[in-house]
Amino acid sequence: MSARKPTFILSFDFDGTLVHPESTPIFHPMLGQMIQQLRTQGAAWVINTGRSLPQTLQGLAQYGIFMEPDYIIAMECDIHKPGLFSKWTDFGPWNKQARKAHERFVKEHRASLDAIRHMVESQTQAQFLAGEYGELGIVGSSEEELDAICAYIDTHATQFPDIGYHRNGIYLRFSHSGYSKGTALSELARLLGLTANHCFAAGDNLNDLSMLNPLHARMIATPGNGLPAVKQHVQNHGGFVATRYASEGMIEALSHFFGGQKA
């Protein structure tokens, strides 16, 4: 576990950043050792992911990562901390605020969301998904198709800035624009008495861009398998672009920012 009062944060996306199923190993044990060493020096280890909390815990077990994170930011927004007997609980009021904001977002922007749904169902081969708990999303038939859909969504967002979304490949989930991996990271930092100056963030996909932002983390990185747009973004903001994939790239990134052994 990290020090009782963390002095800095290590925030990692999970799929494609910490783990890469097509790599050998999927998760390099040296990265685990580096994270543990940095925890002894005051780091709080955070997994910041689009996965749900149960999916994140399942992924850790599936890939043999038997270190418990200090915090998990799940669904690109919800902040959780370990509770008694390893039960994970909300950390602060943020999650409740996010849920209420999403409910207002869906209610207040129904006309725009209906127009977007009509466009998707009438002009594309994509699927518009609506869950029983108010979740709304789109699955594109290709990334190019979703590019065009996102461009259409963005025309609505110029008029209604609350309209936001998280995108990963051909998958998109709508959200209130004020709640993202980036804003959740800043809220976690605030709760810990820290600032963006004390935050390291790493990710490989489009839904990571919100936390790969100096407003939320002054130390940013992407692995060698990061999307070209993510690599360009990180370079433009003075971050570190690794040459190796996923966990091996994160070994490079931690070595760059914090020193220590290189692979």
UniProtKB/TrEMBL annotation:
Pfam families: Hydrolase_3. Signal peptide: none annotated. GO terms for cellular component: cytosol. One of its GO terms (molecular function) is phosphatase activity. InterPro entries: HAD-like_sf (IPR036412), HAD_sf (IPR023214). PANTHER family: HAD SUPERFAMILY HYDROLASE-LIKE, TYPE 3, PHOSPHOSERINE PHOSPHATASE. This is Hydroxymethylpyrimidine pyrophosphatase.
